[in-house]
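Hey, I'm writing a tutorial for new members on how sequence and structure tokens pair up, and I'd like a real worked example in the thread rather than a made-up one. If someone can provide the structure for the chain below, I'll link this post from the tutorial.
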Amino acid sequence: MKKISKNESVRYQLYNHASKVVDGKYYCRAINDLLDAGLRFCNDCPLYAGRSIDENNAFMPQCCYFDIAVGFSDYMSPKEQKERIYGLITAGLATHFPEYLEDDERARRFALIEQAIIYAANAHVGRQRKGSHIPYIVHPMETMMITARLTNDIDTIAAAALHDVLEDTEYTYEDITLAFGEKVARLVGEESEDKREGLDKSMTWRVRKEETIAGVAEKSDEAKKIMLADKLSNLRSSRRDYRAVGLKMWDKFNMTDPAQQKWYYTSVLDSLTELSDTAEYKEAQEIIEEIFQEIV
């Protein structure tokens, strides 16, 4: 792998990268980490550029993003790809989330979304999904992708990418407003619960969820779509865990009682019935039926 020498000029180029699997892992540039081959969001990812066929006649997703010409090769292993990109990030030549927008009017319209993804990736950097080694940014990315199927509104899609920033990071409402404007900040604020910092989260879980459900009626239509997308993303993750370990999956959560979790997710869907005609609502219903089938 060619090293970048001191004072060397670097040229950016839009590449189609094949997402090849080695030892059950592939390098995801959007998430900037190695992920299990079974965990893919490629079809809905803003970087997705179609599929190619590998030497075994298997389909491999391709992603399209800007990269520097020096040192790039389609023959790199997933681990080598990750090491290379981290080197570029450390050198200040790349961001945690890649730039991928093409220079046309449609792409410029989506610039706000790209900025939101980069902002969220940096805000959540180093965090992982609860009880797993999956980078946390996977969840905001998936929430954003689901939201983009429910609405074409750019501010709402950007807010979906940012929906956990106020709740889980040091960034403030004022920071979001300054970076993205009042509408995006308002939507992110509508998706943020009072976590009652300093108190045991398992002890405050029920009252926090009751507040969330009670507040749905006051949410804007855009915020309700983000809420459905957020819960569907969480439910998809829970289904993967349920199929692997059954009800033990709940042991990693602040609320370990699956009956309480069933009450919460069922109540959320009951409060979002105006979206019941969407494929996303129906998918959430199906997952709830599966993962809580043992709970009366």
